[in-house]
Protein backbone atom coordinates (compact mmCIF):
# COMPACT_ATOMS: atom_id res chain seq x y z
CA UNK A 1 0.00 0.00 0.00
CA UNK A 2 1.51 3.33 -1.08
CA UNK A 3 1.84 6.11 1.47
CA UNK A 4 3.52 9.46 1.28
CA UNK A 5 6.56 10.81 3.06
CA UNK A 6 7.95 14.33 3.39
CA UNK A 7 10.89 15.93 5.11
CA UNK A 8 10.64 18.43 8.00
CA UNK A 9 10.48 21.52 5.78
CA UNK A 10 8.03 19.95 3.30
CA UNK A 11 10.41 20.64 0.38
CA UNK A 12 11.22 16.95 -0.28
CA UNK A 13 8.34 14.56 -0.89
CA UNK A 14 8.11 10.89 -1.79
CA UNK A 15 5.43 8.35 -2.62
CA UNK A 16 7.17 5.01 -2.05
CA UNK A 17 5.59 1.62 -2.68
CA UNK A 18 6.34 0.69 0.92
CA UNK A 19 7.01 2.52 4.19
CA UNK A 20 8.23 -0.01 6.73
CA UNK A 21 8.99 0.15 10.45
CA UNK A 22 10.85 -3.07 11.30
CA UNK A 23 10.87 -4.09 14.97
CA UNK A 24 14.40 -5.50 15.00
CA UNK A 25 17.52 -6.18 12.94
CA UNK A 26 16.09 -9.50 11.71
CA UNK A 27 12.98 -7.84 10.21
CA UNK A 28 15.17 -5.10 8.77
CA UNK A 29 17.47 -7.65 7.11
CA UNK A 30 14.46 -9.35 5.52
CA UNK A 31 13.27 -6.00 4.13
CA UNK A 32 16.71 -5.26 2.68
CA UNK A 33 16.59 -8.64 0.93
CA UNK A 34 13.06 -8.38 -0.44
CA UNK A 35 11.43 -4.89 -0.34
CA UNK A 36 11.07 -2.80 -3.53
CA UNK A 37 14.16 -0.92 -4.83
CA UNK A 38 15.65 1.49 -3.92
CA UNK A 39 15.58 1.10 -0.15
CA UNK A 40 16.30 4.33 1.69
CA UNK A 41 16.45 4.59 5.47
CA UNK A 42 14.90 7.59 7.22
CA UNK A 43 15.91 9.06 10.54
CA UNK A 44 13.64 11.91 11.60
CA UNK A 45 13.44 13.44 8.08
CA UNK A 46 15.27 16.61 9.13
CA UNK A 47 17.55 16.74 6.08
CA UNK A 48 16.81 19.33 3.43
CA UNK A 49 18.23 17.25 0.55
CA UNK A 50 16.40 14.26 -1.04
CA UNK A 51 18.60 11.71 0.76
CA UNK A 52 15.61 9.72 1.99
CA UNK A 53 13.44 10.13 -1.13
CA UNK A 54 12.53 6.82 -2.77
CA UNK A 55 9.74 5.47 -4.96
CA UNK A 56 10.61 1.98 -3.72
CA UNK A 57 10.96 1.53 0.05
CA UNK A 58 11.47 3.96 2.92
CA UNK A 59 12.45 2.27 6.17
CA UNK A 60 12.05 4.02 9.50
CA UNK A 61 13.94 2.71 12.54
CA UNK A 62 11.58 4.35 15.01
CA UNK A 63 10.99 0.96 16.71
CA UNK A 64 14.71 0.13 16.83
CA UNK A 65 15.66 2.52 19.60
CA UNK A 66 16.96 2.71 23.16
CA UNK A 67 20.02 1.75 25.19
CA UNK A 68 21.70 -1.61 24.54
CA UNK A 69 24.54 -1.47 27.08
CA UNK A 70 27.06 0.88 28.65
CA UNK A 71 30.51 0.96 30.23
CA UNK A 72 30.73 3.43 33.10
CA UNK A 73 34.54 3.56 33.35
CA UNK A 74 34.98 4.43 29.66
CA UNK A 75 31.85 6.67 29.47
CA UNK A 76 30.80 4.56 26.51
CA UNK A 77 27.25 3.61 25.48
CA UNK A 78 25.81 1.33 22.81
CA UNK A 79 22.42 2.48 21.50
CA UNK A 80 20.02 1.45 18.75
CA UNK A 81 20.30 3.65 15.67
CA UNK A 82 16.67 4.83 15.65
CA UNK A 83 17.08 6.54 19.05
CA UNK A 84 16.18 10.23 18.85
CA UNK A 85 18.74 12.66 20.26
CA UNK A 86 16.23 13.94 22.82
CA UNK A 87 15.77 10.41 24.18
CA UNK A 88 19.52 9.78 23.97
CA UNK A 89 20.24 12.81 26.15
CA UNK A 90 17.96 11.48 28.90
CA UNK A 91 19.41 7.96 28.59
CA UNK A 92 22.96 9.26 28.90
CA UNK A 93 22.23 11.63 31.78
CA UNK A 94 20.60 8.66 33.57
CA UNK A 95 23.85 6.66 33.37
CA UNK A 96 26.12 9.59 34.27
CA UNK A 97 27.29 10.31 30.73
CA UNK A 98 26.98 13.30 28.41
CA UNK A 99 27.36 14.06 24.71
CA UNK A 100 30.48 16.23 24.37
CA UNK A 101 28.66 18.59 22.02
CA UNK A 102 25.36 19.03 20.18
CA UNK A 103 23.80 20.93 17.28
CA UNK A 104 20.81 23.26 17.45
CA UNK A 105 18.03 20.70 17.93
CA UNK A 106 17.46 17.29 19.53
CA UNK A 107 14.87 15.85 17.13
CA UNK A 108 17.12 13.80 14.85
CA UNK A 109 17.67 10.05 15.14
CA UNK A 110 21.28 9.21 16.01
CA UNK A 111 21.54 7.17 12.76
CA UNK A 112 20.35 10.19 10.79
CA UNK A 113 22.63 12.64 12.59
CA UNK A 114 25.63 10.41 11.87
CA UNK A 115 24.51 9.94 8.26
CA UNK A 116 25.10 13.59 7.28
CA UNK A 117 27.91 14.58 9.70
CA UNK A 118 25.62 16.63 11.94
CA UNK A 119 27.67 18.95 14.15
CA UNK A 120 27.61 21.64 16.80
CA UNK A 121 30.30 24.27 17.28
CA UNK A 122 33.79 24.37 18.85
CA UNK A 123 37.29 24.55 17.40
CA UNK A 124 38.29 21.46 19.41
CA UNK A 125 34.97 19.59 19.23
CA UNK A 126 34.20 17.11 16.44
CA UNK A 127 30.83 16.24 14.92
CA UNK A 128 28.77 13.32 16.32
CA UNK A 129 30.49 10.72 14.14
CA UNK A 130 33.84 11.40 15.81
CA UNK A 131 32.39 9.75 18.93
CA UNK A 132 31.94 6.42 17.13
CA UNK A 133 33.65 3.41 18.68
CA UNK A 134 31.72 0.69 16.81
CA UNK A 135 28.96 0.31 14.22
CA UNK A 136 26.60 -2.54 13.46
CA UNK A 137 24.64 -2.45 10.20
CA UNK A 138 22.68 -4.52 7.71
CA UNK A 139 24.49 -4.51 4.37
CA UNK A 140 22.96 -4.44 0.87
CA UNK A 141 22.57 -8.22 0.86
CA UNK A 142 20.76 -8.34 4.18
CA UNK A 143 23.78 -9.49 6.21
CA UNK A 144 24.46 -8.10 9.70
CA UNK A 145 28.02 -6.70 9.90
CA UNK A 146 29.94 -5.09 12.74
CA UNK A 147 33.15 -3.04 12.88
CA UNK A 148 34.99 -1.40 15.77
CA UNK A 149 37.65 1.26 15.94
CA UNK A 150 39.98 -1.21 17.65
CA UNK A 151 39.36 -3.95 15.08
CA UNK A 152 39.15 -2.01 11.80
CA UNK A 153 39.67 1.73 12.08
CA UNK A 154 39.41 2.20 8.29
CA UNK A 155 35.90 0.74 8.21
CA UNK A 156 34.83 3.13 10.99
CA UNK A 157 36.27 6.04 9.01
CA UNK A 158 34.58 4.79 5.83
CA UNK A 159 31.12 4.13 7.28
CA UNK A 160 30.85 6.77 10.03
CA UNK A 161 29.44 9.37 7.61
CA UNK A 162 27.58 7.32 5.02
CA UNK A 163 24.32 8.98 3.88
CA UNK A 164 22.34 5.79 4.35
CA UNK A 165 24.25 4.22 1.47
CA UNK A 166 26.77 2.01 3.30
CA UNK A 167 24.26 -0.21 5.05
CA UNK A 168 21.45 0.49 7.49
CA UNK A 169 22.89 1.17 10.94
CA UNK A 170 21.21 -0.87 13.66
CA UNK A 171 23.41 -0.14 16.68
CA UNK A 172 26.22 2.31 17.39
CA UNK A 173 28.71 2.48 20.26
CA UNK A 174 29.63 6.02 21.19
CA UNK A 175 32.43 7.46 23.28
CA UNK A 176 30.81 10.00 25.56
CA UNK A 177 32.14 11.99 28.52
CA UNK A 178 31.07 12.11 32.19
CA UNK A 179 28.01 14.31 32.68
CA UNK A 180 28.84 18.02 33.05
CA UNK A 181 27.44 21.51 33.38
CA UNK A 182 27.89 24.43 31.01
CA UNK A 183 27.93 28.17 31.54
CA UNK A 184 26.29 29.75 28.50
CA UNK A 185 26.63 33.43 27.68
CA UNK A 186 25.10 35.43 24.83
CA UNK A 187 25.75 39.02 23.84
CA UNK A 188 25.54 41.24 20.79
CA UNK A 189 28.44 43.06 19.13
CA UNK A 190 29.04 44.90 15.84
CA UNK A 191 29.63 42.48 12.96
CA UNK A 192 32.82 44.41 12.03
CA UNK A 193 34.31 43.57 15.46
CA UNK A 194 33.20 39.95 15.12
CA UNK A 195 34.80 39.55 11.69
CA UNK A 196 38.02 41.21 12.86
CA UNK A 197 38.32 39.09 16.02
CA UNK A 198 36.80 35.92 14.55
CA UNK A 199 39.73 33.57 15.23
CA UNK A 200 40.42 34.69 18.80
CA UNK A 201 36.77 34.84 19.84
CA UNK A 202 35.90 31.43 18.39
CA UNK A 203 38.94 29.80 20.01
CA UNK A 204 38.47 31.50 23.41
CA UNK A 205 35.59 29.19 24.42
CA UNK A 206 34.97 25.45 24.48
CA UNK A 207 32.05 26.10 22.15
CA UNK A 208 31.40 29.39 20.37
CA UNK A 209 29.12 30.39 17.53
CA UNK A 210 27.36 33.49 16.30
CA UNK A 211 24.38 34.63 14.28
CA UNK A 212 24.46 37.64 11.99
CA UNK A 213 21.06 39.38 12.05
CA UNK A 214 20.40 40.59 8.48
CA UNK A 215 20.13 44.36 8.10
CA UNK A 216 21.29 44.99 11.68
CA UNK A 217 25.07 45.28 11.35
CA UNK A 218 25.20 43.20 14.56
CA UNK A 219 26.00 39.63 15.52
CA UNK A 220 24.78 37.67 18.53
CA UNK A 221 27.70 35.71 19.99
CA UNK A 222 27.06 32.53 22.01
CA UNK A 223 29.80 31.06 24.21
CA UNK A 224 29.63 27.86 26.30
CA UNK A 225 32.25 26.69 28.79
CA UNK A 226 32.32 23.86 31.31
CA UNK A 227 31.40 25.10 34.78
CA UNK A 228 31.39 23.68 38.31
CA UNK A 229 28.96 26.36 39.51
CA UNK A 230 25.42 25.59 40.65
CA UNK A 231 22.65 25.67 38.03
CA UNK A 232 20.79 28.92 37.40
CA UNK A 233 17.54 29.24 35.41
CA UNK A 234 17.79 29.12 31.61
CA UNK A 235 16.12 32.28 30.27
CA UNK A 236 12.83 31.61 28.50
CA UNK A 237 13.42 31.01 24.82
CA UNK A 238 12.71 34.02 22.65
CA UNK A 239 14.21 32.84 19.32
CA UNK A 240 10.77 32.41 17.77
CA UNK A 241 9.60 35.79 19.06
CA UNK A 242 12.69 37.45 17.59
CA UNK A 243 12.11 35.69 14.27
CA UNK A 244 8.49 36.83 14.20
CA UNK A 245 9.64 40.45 14.65
CA UNK A 246 12.23 40.13 11.87
CA UNK A 247 9.61 38.58 9.58
CA UNK A 248 7.12 41.35 10.30
CA UNK A 249 9.69 44.08 9.58
CA UNK A 250 10.68 42.23 6.39
CA UNK A 251 7.07 42.17 5.20
CA UNK A 252 6.03 45.68 6.14
CA UNK A 253 9.30 47.48 5.24
CA UNK A 254 10.44 45.38 2.31
CA UNK A 255 10.67 48.40 0.01
CA UNK A 256 12.04 50.74 2.68
CA UNK A 257 15.43 49.14 3.40
CA UNK A 258 16.87 52.14 5.26
CA UNK A 259 14.00 52.21 7.73
CA UNK A 260 14.14 48.42 8.06
CA UNK A 261 17.86 48.65 8.84
CA UNK A 262 17.34 51.44 11.37
CA UNK A 263 14.58 49.64 13.27
CA UNK A 264 16.35 46.26 13.29
CA UNK A 265 19.62 47.80 14.42
CA UNK A 266 17.84 49.63 17.24
CA UNK A 267 16.06 46.45 18.36
CA UNK A 268 19.12 44.18 18.17
CA UNK A 269 21.30 46.60 20.16
CA UNK A 270 18.76 46.35 22.98
CA UNK A 271 18.71 42.52 23.11
CA UNK A 272 19.78 41.77 26.71
CA UNK A 273 22.86 39.63 27.38
CA UNK A 274 22.30 36.15 28.84
CA UNK A 275 24.40 34.26 31.36
CA UNK A 276 23.33 30.99 32.97
CA UNK A 277 24.61 27.59 34.13
CA UNK A 278 22.79 24.32 33.40
CA UNK A 279 23.37 20.61 32.91
CA UNK A 280 24.66 19.95 29.37
CA UNK A 281 21.34 18.49 28.20
CA UNK A 282 19.48 21.73 29.00
CA UNK A 283 21.82 24.00 27.07
CA UNK A 284 22.48 23.02 23.46
CA UNK A 285 19.12 22.40 21.81
CA UNK A 286 16.31 24.84 21.04
CA UNK A 287 12.85 24.61 19.53
CA UNK A 288 12.64 25.43 15.82
CA UNK A 289 8.96 25.97 15.03
CA UNK A 290 9.19 28.28 12.02
CA UNK A 291 9.89 26.03 9.04
CA UNK A 292 12.74 26.93 6.70
CA UNK A 293 15.04 25.48 4.06
CA UNK A 294 18.76 25.70 4.60
CA UNK A 295 22.15 25.63 2.90
CA UNK A 296 25.29 25.19 4.99
CA UNK A 297 28.84 25.07 3.68
CA UNK A 298 31.90 23.95 5.59
CA UNK A 299 34.87 26.17 4.70
CA UNK A 300 38.55 26.19 5.54
CA UNK A 301 38.53 28.06 8.87
CA UNK A 302 40.41 31.15 7.71
CA UNK A 303 38.05 31.62 4.75
CA UNK A 304 35.03 32.00 7.05
CA UNK A 305 35.05 35.77 7.67
CA UNK A 306 35.71 36.58 4.00
CA UNK A 307 32.91 34.33 2.77
CA UNK A 308 30.54 35.63 5.44
CA UNK A 309 31.14 39.27 4.42
CA UNK A 310 30.24 38.33 0.83
CA UNK A 311 27.14 36.38 1.88
CA UNK A 312 25.92 39.32 3.98
CA UNK A 313 26.44 41.74 1.06
CA UNK A 314 24.61 39.38 -1.34
CA UNK A 315 21.69 38.89 1.05
CA UNK A 316 21.17 42.54 1.89
CA UNK A 317 21.61 43.75 -1.71
CA UNK A 318 19.62 41.20 -3.66
CA UNK A 319 17.37 39.13 -1.36
CA UNK A 320 15.18 41.45 0.72
CA UNK A 321 12.82 38.57 1.50
CA UNK A 322 15.47 36.95 3.72
CA UNK A 323 15.04 37.58 7.44
CA UNK A 324 16.57 34.49 9.11
CA UNK A 325 19.86 35.07 10.96
CA UNK A 326 22.99 33.63 9.31
CA UNK A 327 24.62 31.03 11.57
CA UNK A 328 28.40 30.70 11.89
CA UNK A 329 30.10 27.82 13.70
CA UNK A 330 33.45 26.03 13.87
CA UNK A 331 34.14 22.28 13.82
CA UNK A 332 37.34 20.37 14.66
CA UNK A 333 39.10 18.35 11.94
CA UNK A 334 38.64 14.56 11.77
CA UNK A 335 39.73 11.49 9.79
CA UNK A 336 36.39 10.22 8.45
CA UNK A 337 36.49 9.74 4.68
CA UNK A 338 33.18 11.43 3.80
CA UNK A 339 33.27 13.94 6.62
CA UNK A 340 33.12 17.56 5.41
CA UNK A 341 35.58 18.22 8.26
CA UNK A 342 38.08 15.71 6.87
CA UNK A 343 41.53 16.88 7.94
CA UNK A 344 40.61 20.52 8.23
CA UNK A 345 39.53 22.96 10.92
CA UNK A 346 36.25 24.32 9.62
CA UNK A 347 34.13 27.44 9.68
CA UNK A 348 30.53 26.51 8.85
CA UNK A 349 28.14 29.13 7.49
CA UNK A 350 24.42 28.41 7.26
CA UNK A 351 21.75 30.44 5.45
CA UNK A 352 18.03 29.91 5.86
CA UNK A 353 14.97 30.72 3.77
CA UNK A 354 11.33 30.66 4.91
CA UNK A 355 9.75 27.35 3.86
CA UNK A 356 6.70 29.22 2.56
CA UNK A 357 8.79 30.65 -0.33
CA UNK A 358 10.99 29.23 -3.10
CA UNK A 359 14.51 28.98 -1.63
CA UNK A 360 16.31 28.18 -4.87
CA UNK A 361 17.14 31.65 -6.26
CA UNK A 362 18.83 32.60 -2.96
CA UNK A 363 20.63 29.26 -2.63
CA UNK A 364 21.80 29.36 -6.26
CA UNK A 365 23.21 32.85 -5.79
CA UNK A 366 24.97 32.02 -2.51
CA UNK A 367 26.52 28.68 -3.46
CA UNK A 368 29.23 30.06 -5.81
CA UNK A 369 30.52 32.20 -2.92
CA UNK A 370 30.88 29.14 -0.69
CA UNK A 371 32.50 27.13 -3.49
CA UNK A 372 34.96 29.92 -4.35
CA UNK A 373 36.17 29.76 -0.74
CA UNK A 374 36.74 26.01 -0.88
CA UNK A 375 33.51 24.94 0.82
CA UNK A 376 32.23 21.41 1.20
CA UNK A 377 28.43 21.22 1.49
CA UNK A 378 26.64 19.83 4.54
CA UNK A 379 25.31 16.49 3.26
CA UNK A 380 21.86 17.15 4.69
CA UNK A 381 21.44 20.74 3.49
CA UNK A 382 20.75 22.21 0.05
CA UNK A 383 23.56 22.10 -2.51
CA UNK A 384 24.03 21.27 -6.18
CA UNK A 385 27.28 19.29 -5.97
CA UNK A 386 27.74 15.94 -7.72
CA UNK A 387 30.26 13.10 -7.81
CA UNK A 388 32.86 14.89 -9.96
CA UNK A 389 32.88 17.81 -7.48
CA UNK A 390 33.13 15.55 -4.43
CA UNK A 391 36.04 13.69 -5.95
CA UNK A 392 38.00 16.95 -5.85
CA UNK A 393 36.81 17.90 -2.36
CA UNK A 394 37.39 14.55 -0.61
CA UNK A 395 40.89 12.98 -0.78
CA UNK A 396 39.54 9.53 0.24
CA UNK A 397 36.54 9.65 -2.16
CA UNK A 398 37.61 6.69 -4.31
CA UNK A 399 38.38 4.58 -1.24
CA UNK A 400 34.95 5.37 0.19
CA UNK A 401 33.24 4.44 -3.08
CA UNK A 402 35.10 1.09 -3.11
CA UNK A 403 33.83 0.32 0.40
CA UNK A 404 30.30 1.30 -0.68
CA UNK A 405 30.46 -1.16 -3.58
CA UNK A 406 31.58 -3.91 -1.24
CA UNK A 407 28.74 -3.20 1.21
CA UNK A 408 26.06 -2.74 -1.45
CA UNK A 409 27.20 -4.51 -4.66
CA UNK A 410 23.69 -4.50 -6.15
CA UNK A 411 23.01 -0.82 -5.40
CA UNK A 412 19.99 -1.59 -3.21
CA UNK A 413 20.46 1.74 -1.38
CA UNK A 414 21.00 3.81 -4.56
CA UNK A 415 18.11 6.11 -5.52
CA UNK A 416 18.45 8.45 -8.53
CA UNK A 417 19.55 11.23 -6.15
CA UNK A 418 22.23 9.00 -4.58
CA UNK A 419 23.38 7.89 -8.06
CA UNK A 420 24.06 11.56 -8.87
CA UNK A 421 26.01 12.09 -5.64
CA UNK A 422 28.10 8.97 -6.17
CA UNK A 423 28.43 9.08 -9.98
CA UNK A 424 26.87 5.68 -10.43
CA UNK A 425 25.92 4.87 -14.01
CA UNK A 426 23.64 1.87 -14.23
CA UNK A 427 25.09 -0.74 -16.60
CA UNK A 428 23.30 -3.66 -18.29
CA UNK A 429 20.68 -5.16 -15.95
CA UNK A 430 20.92 -2.01 -13.76
CA UNK A 431 24.15 -3.21 -12.15
CA UNK A 432 27.07 -0.79 -11.84
CA UNK A 433 29.97 -1.81 -14.10
C1 LIG B 1 15.46 22.57 12.45
C2 LIG B 1 16.74 21.88 12.04
C3 LIG B 1 17.91 22.14 12.75
C4 LIG B 1 19.12 21.51 12.37
N1 LIG B 1 20.26 21.79 13.07
C5 LIG B 1 21.43 21.23 12.69
C6 LIG B 1 22.64 21.50 13.38
O1 LIG B 1 22.66 22.24 14.37
N2 LIG B 1 23.79 20.93 12.92
C7 LIG B 1 23.80 20.14 11.80
O2 LIG B 1 24.88 19.67 11.41
N3 LIG B 1 22.67 19.82 11.16
C8 LIG B 1 21.50 20.36 11.58
N4 LIG B 1 20.34 20.04 10.90
C9 LIG B 1 20.41 19.02 9.84
C10 LIG B 1 20.15 17.63 10.42
O3 LIG B 1 20.82 17.45 11.64
C11 LIG B 1 20.67 16.56 9.46
O4 LIG B 1 20.11 16.73 8.20
C12 LIG B 1 20.42 15.15 10.01
O5 LIG B 1 20.98 14.22 9.13
C13 LIG B 1 18.94 14.85 10.18
O6 LIG B 1 18.78 13.70 10.95
P1 LIG B 1 17.51 12.80 10.77
O7 LIG B 1 17.48 11.82 11.88
O8 LIG B 1 16.32 13.62 10.55
O9 LIG B 1 17.91 12.01 9.45
P2 LIG B 1 17.28 12.00 7.99
O10 LIG B 1 17.26 13.38 7.48
O11 LIG B 1 16.02 11.25 8.02
O12 LIG B 1 18.41 11.15 7.24
C14 LIG B 1 19.69 11.69 7.05
C15 LIG B 1 20.60 10.65 6.39
O13 LIG B 1 20.91 9.63 7.33
C16 LIG B 1 20.57 8.37 6.79
N5 LIG B 1 20.14 7.51 7.90
C17 LIG B 1 19.15 7.72 8.78
N6 LIG B 1 19.08 6.70 9.65
C18 LIG B 1 20.04 5.82 9.30
C19 LIG B 1 20.46 4.55 9.78
N7 LIG B 1 19.87 3.95 10.80
N8 LIG B 1 21.49 3.92 9.13
C20 LIG B 1 22.11 4.48 8.09
N9 LIG B 1 21.75 5.69 7.59
C21 LIG B 1 20.73 6.36 8.19
C22 LIG B 1 19.46 8.64 5.79
O14 LIG B 1 19.35 7.63 4.81
C23 LIG B 1 19.96 9.95 5.20
O15 LIG B 1 20.94 9.70 4.21
C24 LIG B 1 19.13 20.62 11.26
C25 LIG B 1 17.94 20.35 10.56
C26 LIG B 1 16.76 20.98 10.95
C27 LIG B 1 15.50 20.69 10.20
TrEMBL record:
| A GO molecular-function descriptor | FAD binding
Q: Which Pfam families match?
A: ALO, FAD_binding_4
Tell me if Oxidoreductase is a UniProt keyword of this record. yes
Tell me the keywords, alphabetical order: FAD, Flavoprotein, Oxidoreductase
Looking at the UniProt entry, the stretches that span the membrane are none
SUPFAM superfamilies reported for this sequence: FAD-binding/transporter-associated domain-like
- Residue ranges annotated for the FAD-binding PCMH-type domain, each copy included: 12-179
Cellular component (GO) terms are:
membrane
Q: Which domain of life is it from?
A: Bacteria
Q: Which NCBIfam families match?
A: bact_FAD_ox (TIGR01679)
Q: What is this protein called?
A: FAD-binding protein
Amino acid sequence: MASSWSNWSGFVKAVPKLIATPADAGELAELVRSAPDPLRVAGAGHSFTPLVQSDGTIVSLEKIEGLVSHEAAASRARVRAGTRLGALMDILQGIGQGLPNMGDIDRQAIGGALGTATHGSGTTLGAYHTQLEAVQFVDGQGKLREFSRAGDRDMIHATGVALGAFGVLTEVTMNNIPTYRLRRRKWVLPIGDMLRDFETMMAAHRSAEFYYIPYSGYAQFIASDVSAAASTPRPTQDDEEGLATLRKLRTTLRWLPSLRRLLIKGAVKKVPAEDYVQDWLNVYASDRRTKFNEMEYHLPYEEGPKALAEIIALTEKHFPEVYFPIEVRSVAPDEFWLSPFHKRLTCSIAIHHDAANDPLPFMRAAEPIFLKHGGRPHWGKMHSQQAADFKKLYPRWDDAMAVRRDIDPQNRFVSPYMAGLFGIEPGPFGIQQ
